[in-house]
């Protein structure tokens, strides 16, 4: 019987305290804040420290030292650092690295030049075949025929009457429907050369 009575008294006391606290709160008062857990106490000097704690402390110290050294180098004008943190470098082309990775290093001569790096100088007839004369980026002249390749494409058509050479340029662009595009180089007429 006494346990029932003590439980009833405890319940009544809890309800009274709750009602009393609710009565103290006014409409404009902020809600009561939950109690915060106290921060874990630092280990006492001489207390054993776990290996994980030592490792984390050492890594944090190395990171802070690296950040401070990088900041000092930038302020002193010795360099710039870029931490991609798993992202791609925004200053690298999305297309060129794919082509370079597939083809490897550029060969020497005209085979290692891009279509944009050569200038059409003339077109000559040799028997039934037409040859295009190009000035390369190395300031050397090259005679090419239909089917000859440059680094990023090959010649598909040479037309002496119109003074044009058509290339089929390889394109490694994921947005493009075709893996190539046709590029035409024209001979400059005497009037155009005088205007330049």
What does this entry look like structurally?
A hairpin with a 2-residue loop joins strand 1 and strand 2 (129-135). It is elongated, with a radius of gyration of 39 Å. Helix content is 32%, strand content 21%. The chain has a domain at 107-189: SH3 type barrels (Roll), CATH 2.30.30. It has 196 residues and is α+β, with helices and mostly antiparallel strands. It has a four-stranded antiparallel beta sheet with strand order 4-5-6-7, with no helix packed on it.
Q: Which topology of the domain at 107-189 does CATH recognise?
A: SH3 type barrels
Q: What's the arrangement of strands in the largest beta sheet?
A: 4-5-6-7
Total E-strand runs = 7
Mean pLDDT: 75
Strand-and-helix sequence, N→C? HHHEEEEEEEH
Helix content: 25-40%
Helix/strand-derived class? alpha+beta
User: Hey, roughly how much beta strand do the residues contain?
Assistant: 15-25%
Query: What profile does the largest beta sheet have?
Result: 4 strands, antiparallel
For this structure, the quaternary state is single chain
State the end-to-end CA separation: 114 Å
The CATH first-level class of the domain at 107-189 comes to: Mainly Beta
- Rg, alpha carbons: 39 Å
Counting H and I runs of at least 4 residues, what is the number of helices? 4
Query: From the 3D coordinates, which CATH architecture of the domain at 107-189 would you assign?
Result: Roll
Unreliable residue stretches = none
Any idea what the shape is?
elongated
